[in-house]
Amino acid sequence: MKVKFFFNNLIILFVLCFIACSTNKNMIREGKSNAQLTETYWKLVEILGKKVELNPHQKEAHIILKAEQNRIMGNSSCNNFNGYYEMLDNNNIQFSKVVSTRMGCLDMEVENNMFKIFDEINKYVITGDTLVFMNKKLDTVAIFEAVYLR
């Protein structure tokens, strides 16, 4: 009888521990998946329908939208850039006066596409840690993922 009581309590304890651990992980995941458009390091993962794959000589393509003065800054895999953005109604956004350094790099595909999309971007959507920029036809032109410092 004591053995049965012990095993029943052990099973109940195991179930409670499992539930507590699962709940905690979900709370951490949910808390981290509320990326904000501004003041977030957004790593470029796809541009114009093509996954971004950089060679060892390229820098990580990324953007940071600064709330102060509506500035944008980042790197396009070769050159640093900065400029301005304007927030409009219904998640519409426009970029302007984007300028960059002018270094030459071996592979300029990501670089060239990055500067091409700034004129095309019209709308954005953030889902969890993913930022999607779209054009006026609502076609996806770029996908970014939030990167957090540890």
Give an account of the 3D structure.
This protein has 150 residues and is α+β, with helices and mostly antiparallel strands. The protein has two domains: 32 residues; 107 residues, Beta Barrel (Lipocalin), CATH 2.40.128.270. Helix content is 29%, strand content 35%. Strands 1, 2, 3, 4, 5, 6, 7, 8 and 9 form a nine-stranded antiparallel β-sheet that branches. A hairpin with a 5-residue loop joins strand 5 and strand 6. It starts with a helix and ends with a strand. About 16% of the residues have low confidence.
Features:
150 residues; alpha+beta; Lipocalin; 29% helix
Mind sketching the topology for me?
Layout: H1 2-32, E1 41-47, E2 50-51, E3 62-66, E4 71-75, E5 80-87, E6 93-100, H2 109-120, E7 123-127, E8 130-134, E9 140-147
Antiparallel strand pairs: 1-2, 1-3, 1-9, 3-4, 4-5, 5-6, 7-8, 8-9
Instruction: Estimate nothing, just give the exact number of structural domains.
Output: 2
Reading off the top of the CATH hierarchy, the class of the largest domain is best stated as Mainly Beta
Question: Mean pLDDT, nearest integer?
Answer: 83
How many distinct beta strands? 9
- The sequence of SSEs as H and E is HEEEEEEHEEE
CATH level-two architecture of the largest domain = Beta Barrel
Secondary structure category = alpha+beta
Principal-axis shape:
globular
Summarize this entry quickly.
The chain has 150 residues and is an alpha+beta fold.
